[in-house]
Amino acid sequence: MFNRNRFLRKVAAIASISLVTGCSLFSDDDSDSAGPIVVGTTSAPSTLDPAGAWDGSWELYRNIFQTLLAYPNGSTTPQPDAAESCSFTDSTSRTYRCKLRAGMKFADGDALNAEAVQHSIDRIRTINAPGGPAGLLGSLDRVETSGDREVVFHLNQSDATFPFVLATPAMSIVDPDDYPANSLRKDDKVYGSGPYELKSYEEGKQAVLTKNGNYDGFADRKNDEVTIRYFQDSSTMVKALRDKQVDVTYRGLAADDIIALQKHNDTDLELVDGAGTDISYLVFNPKDSWAKQPAVRKAVAQIVDRGAIAHKVYKDTVDPLYSMVPKGLTGHSTGFFDDFGNPSVAKARSILSDAGITQRVPLTFWYTTDRYGSETGLMFQELKRQLEGSGLFTITLKSRPWKDYVVGYQKGQYPVFGRGWFPDFPDADNFIAPFVGEHNALGTPYPSKEITGQLLPHSRAESDRAQTVKDMEQAQQIIVQDARLLPLWQGRQYVAASDDISGGEQALDPSTIMMMWMLHRKTSW
């Protein structure tokens, strides 16, 4: 899923071989004698109930819940986890059957059986929570069980991506005794069957994970306990890393902190710089009187200078992006550059004047203050500078913390707003399907019959994903022509760690979720 290979940029005087291979060169005996491994991130969960989140909450879910399929270390295709086996049983990719491992249990000892799997999937659709993952199950008709160990998924259309969907943390298996069929669970307790139990949780502060004694899956746990600390900003997180209060940092490292880590001779810190597939983009709300006009959206697309954003704001720690599908995935294109070329005020003015718009266009841009890194506010200041500098727009900036921000965009309150996307699974489909249709991940309906009714169904009938390029490129071109979504940049993945920690890079699955069980300490030299 990476867009290109990159080398490790060494911060420590010690070579980073162990982080690259995921295997320590040193003895791992008594690796937890120094206490739990502490991981810092700026991406806190929005809810502890998997039926309610289609966001970075999945980072926690992956470690405390199980899914039927997941990604063992080194795999880029889903493999059985809670399941013993899974496969399509017909030639049209419309019937998918899974057999559970025998004797599966949740952390509290309750049986994990076929009924629990059906309950977990059905409640996602029944609850249909705003911002929840029900949109991932658009191809699912119904779920059936056969005995305690067999689950059959009947699809309403061919969908070769369905195994990828089942591997997302959204499809986490929950205990029917603890999770209502018709509503989200509201407390801070979790009962899953994953590698860890959630020992304690303080919203916005930390999650303490301890080894689950009932776990039965592919994870080979390298540690007994992990504490995840949630930070509001990168600088505080990096200070905690330098002060030995945190062992590993992931998600949310600011550009200035990355540059400082690359340049500074920290003899006890290492930085892994790898390519990634997370993206940042703008969403235009058709309910707004200005944002609904194609000429306005296209004029914005004609002015925005992605290169300036990547260089001035992010210090070249991200790359300009001209497609919703990032580089490195089959089906990537450069449609926005092909159609709009380099930023041009003259072309933007012509687009507006041809539509009869001669006044400065007033737009309000919204962004979240605590989700996508410390540079987010600076990026929106740069967007404001570029657009107002053209003489064609008047931009008002507004912001909210993530939990309030989500509610606002789900209610359609924002004319233009910023979003980031970490892939559910490494396929071009996942950078198109979640954003289109009447019910999408943005809370902003984007009807496109050609994409949802023709291109996506046609591509999903193809089990060889390399054969979907034409459909994916055509879908992206429709998005370019509509200019309802405007890609800005593609990120890289940075993991900073104390030099006594191994497994950092190998801990990332293909959707760049951290598998905490891969982290461990080097204990002897």
TrEMBL record:
Family to which this protein belongs: Belongs to the bacterial solute-binding protein 5 family.
Highest classification ranks of the organism: Bacteria, Bacillati, Actinomycetota, Actinomycetes, Kitasatosporales
Localisation per UniProt entry: Cell envelope
Residues forming coiled coils: none
Name of the protein in its database record: Solute-binding transport lipoprotein
InterPro entries: Peptide/Ni-bd (IPR030678), SBP_5 (IPR039424), SBP_5_dom (IPR000914)
Signal sequence, renumbered to the chain: 1-26
GO CC, one annotated term: cell envelope
A Pfam family of this chain: SBP_bac_5
Gene Ontology BP term (one): peptide transport
Entry GO MF terms: peptide transmembrane transporter activity
Key words of the record: Lipoprotein, Signal, Transport
Domain Solute-binding protein family: 77-440
